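Sequence in, structure out. Go.
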Amino acid sequence: MGYYLNPGNSGFARITSSEYVDKTGLIGVLNRTIDTADNLTCISRPRRFGKSFAAQMICAYYGKGCDSRELFKRWEIAMDSSFEEHLNQYDVIYVDLTSAKPYTDSYKNLVPFLVDALTGEIEKQYPEVAVVHGNLAATLADMADKVGNKIIMIIDEWDAPIRENPDSSQDYLEFLRSLFKNSGATSKIFAAAYMTGILPIRKDGSQSAISDFKEYTMLDPMDFARYFGFTEEEVRGLCLKHQLSFESARHWYDGYIVGPVHSIYNPFSVMSAVKAHRFRSYWKKTSAVETLMTYMDMDQDGLQEDIAALIAGRSISVDTDSFQNDVTTFVCKDDVLTLLVHLGYLTYEDVCESDSAEPDSAGLVHIPNEEVRIEFEKILRRTRHKKLIESRSTLVGISYSQTTKQHSCKIESVSK
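Output:
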C-alpha cells in the first residue's frame, strides 16, 4: 500500500471505531455512476460537514490491497445490490490537497509534487508499468492496460489551491485537464472520480478543466442530499443514545435546507456537543470569522440592511444565478448572500412550486440556527459595527447600547 495509491482502509477504520453515523449509502449512489457518462462527481459543501470522512470511506470501499468486507458489513451499503460487485475492486488514488500544501510552497509547486509522488508509488507497486515522467495521464493509461483494471480517483478539497493561491492555479487546472478532459484516455483510465470542495466550479469557464464533472452543491444536491450532513432522524438517535435533549439539539444545530431535505445538521457541531455533553456554538472552529467580517463590511445594494434583517430572524429573497462561484467576483449583494450559503453561514430554500427538473435561481435565505446566529452577533460586538447594530436593533426593538452589552454566547446544560 502507498500514501496516495491504494492507501488502504485504516482511515475509515479509525472513523468507525468511535461514534459513527452511517453514511455508507453514499457509496451506493456512486456505484450507479461507475463507467457511465456521469462517473465524474464533484460535491461542494462547507467546512466541517463531513467531506473528508466521506472521502476516506470511499477510499476504503473501492481500494485494492485491503479487504474491507468486515469493515462495511454492518452498515447500509452492505444491503445494496452493488456491494459485492465493487468492493475492493479498483486501484484508488486518494489525494487530500490540504495535507499536500506544506510540501508545495503553498501550492506553487503542487503539480510536480503530485506527479513525482504518484509515479514513484506506481513504480513501486507496479514495476511492469512504463512510467512516462512528467506525463501522469500516459502513465496511468499504461497502468490500466498492464494491471487490467481502471482507477477510482478521489481528490479531497480539490479547490483549496484555487481559493488559497489563485495566481498559481493555472498549472494545477491544466493538470486536471490532462486527466479529466483527455477524451478517450479519461474513460480508459478512470472507472469514476470523486472530488470534494467548498465552492462550486466557476461559471466563467476558467475552471473548464473539470467542466465534465457532475456537480452537487448546497443549492442543488440531488441524490446526495441526505449525505450533506446529519438528518433529523440521525440526530434524534444520537440524542436518545446519549440522553441529550433533542429539542435543544434542534434549536442549536438544525436549520439547513439541502434540496428536498429540510432538516440537515452540521455533523461537526452535533458530534462536538455529544462528546462535550453540552450545547453551545462550535462554529468558531469551522470557519474563519474574518471571512464573514469582510463581507459584512460590504454594503453593495443595501447588503448591510439585509444582514441586519437576517440577524433579527428574517428571511431575505435572493437570486443565486449571477454568483460566479468564487470569493472575489461580486456583481450584486445576492452574490455575497449566495457565497454565505456555500460557506454554511446561511441556508437557502427554493420557494418555486414548479415541477421543473431545474431548480429556480430565486429563493429565500436565512440564518439556519442558534449556533450561527451567535457567530453573527459576536462579530457585531467585536467590530462594534454601529450601522449594522442600529439596523438590527430597530428590527427587534432594542437600543444600540443594549445590543452592545448583550452576551449571546450561552451554554445549555444537556439536561435541558
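Check: Residues 353-357, 398-411 have pLDDT under 50 and may be disordered. Residues 75 and 82 are 14 Å apart (CA to CA).
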